[in-house]
Amino acid sequence: NPQRRKKRRKRTKTEWGGVGVTHAVVVIFLEFFAWGLLTTPMLKVLHETFPQHTFLMNGLVHGVKGFLSFLSAPLIGALSDTWGRKSFLLITVFFTCAPIPFMRISPWWYFALIAVSGTFAVTFSVIFAYVADVTEEHERSTAYGLVSATFAASLVTSPAIGAYLSSRYGDSLVVLVATVIAVADIAFVFFVVPESLPDKMRLSSWGFPISWEQADPFASLRRVGKDSTVLLICVTVFLSYLPEAGQYSSFFLYLKQVIHFSSEAIAAFIAMVGILSIIAQVR
Predict the structure, then answer these.
(1) In sequence order, what E strands does 234-278 have?
(2) Is the C-alpha dihedral spanning 274, 278, 281, 283 positive or negative?
């Protein structure tokens, strides 16, 4: 019976979707928990490395990273449609976390790698594609909200834990713990996370060339201009996120260097923001 087989397939996908979303949540939590631990040490290292141009270099590092992410995101998305999600989850998590141990090895290399890692720092894009593969359409919004809430949850405790470890045992231990968690995240993707995109659903086979239209980051911008409603929505979102992105990249540094907040106060502030974000996502 075709209808019975169709229902069986949907039920199987729904059951698998719960597991798949759990995998996505774990990957996001571990990655951003590792980076959250470094909040206090990173503010110290940034000021010590660039004492005269702390805010300028902080903005340049985040600006280059964001611009490279913008350029590479369509290509990585197209390649994941072709080669599957798991391999690109592994690549994005690895390169996003690669700068972490360099905080103690060489601060200059650390900030340079953060900037360059923007080429692959699109874990969220691949995670959302992964979630779309393993969920039904009516489950997708809830699953996306859960992933976003998990990102906020990872920031509720990790800065406070990092600040405590830093004050008690020093920054080296914090970097070591963050590195171990990052390695655990990479191992989780490699050994536990299954491929979400079956071979028959992939757009092409290995070695098939990707068109420039798929890799062009400006193609979607050109398509946006063709629909006035979509254009207005995109402009609204852009103007909304523009000050938020600038605030996120410099606010904690401002609290530390200008207002002279303690590490504990900054961690408490981040935890408060994370809790409010979780409440908003759940609601």
Answers:
(1) none
(2) negative
Stronger pLDDT, 16 or 158, i.e. the higher one: 158
> Contact 189/93 with Cβ under 8 angstroms?
yes
In degrees, rounded to 5, the angle at the alpha carbon of residue 215 between the alpha carbons of residues 217 and 99 is 80
Q: Which CATH class is domain 2-198+262-282?
A: mainly alpha
Q: What's the whole-model pTM score?
A: 0.81
Span 159-207, pLDDT tens digits: 888 888 888 898 999 999 999 999 999 999 999 998 887 654 555 544 4
Of 9, 283, 3, 13, the residue nearest 148 (C-alpha): 283
Q: Which amino acid is at 246?
A: G
Structure token pair of residue 169: 């045992």
- What φ, ψ does residue 58 adopt, rounded to 5°? -60, -45
Q: What is the dihedral of CA 265, 270, 273, 279, to 10 degrees?
A: -120
Domain borders along the chain are: 2-198+262-282
